[in-house]
Request: fold
Amino acid sequence: MLRLGEKQELAIVKKVAFGVYLSDEEGSERVLLPGKEVPEGAGSGDLLKVFLYRDSSDRMIATMRTPYVTLGKTAVLKVRENSKIGAFLDWGLEKDLLLPFHEQTRRVREGEECLAALYIDKSGRLCATMKVYPYLHMNSPYQIGDQVRGRIYEISDNFGVFVAVDDCYSALIPRKDAAGSFFVGDVIEARVTQVKEDGKLDLSVREKAYLQMDKDADLVVQVIREFDGVLPFSDKASPEVIRREFGLSKAAFKRAVGRLLKEGKIRLTENRIFLTDEE
Reply:
């Protein structure tokens, strides 16, 4: 059986002026390997390891080249150009790979890189998708406390920030910890906070609470100064308001406020927070 999007060994069954035809052991299907790619001295019966894809006329064709990504795998690919139907990616073959608009988690631009997986669409064509969640591995070597590097590939209002650690392992910055600005395509440094039973990782870009508290307290002071020394709400504000103004979770905000109160740098009322040095 000829397998689109994969490398496989096929035998030369016929030589023609423009190349050779290859077939599997069953011999029920044939595919052309163009003459310019036929190894010197190759003859009938020889086995060649080739990759199968579709040419510009939508015919299955073989190549001796190895593309940057194969079926069901992920890779970081460069955007060659945009078109009316999507973006075209350089994947190491003559015909560029289509990344349809509906498979983009954000609009990509010419010249940039994106993490993509290779799949077969409903029309039987090879296409790329940035929705790589189903294609990522869950057997990472990382443990709680490890520092990792990952690429953001999707952002969900319900779940948080989806990250591909090392561009291949499944990870998430949970919504409650996803404070700050995140963008699809960003490469980030993070700390593993949980390894789930299925192998997926939970991450945080924040330091451990006792180390992060000083930075958060400085941020709170800075924001209060921007409000002329009086914050128009207290630590009882909703998590949404706190996240909007500070980029912090409510728990982190309350810890920072507690630190500032203890140090005497703020004064707290029912509905306001005052800087003591600006009263």
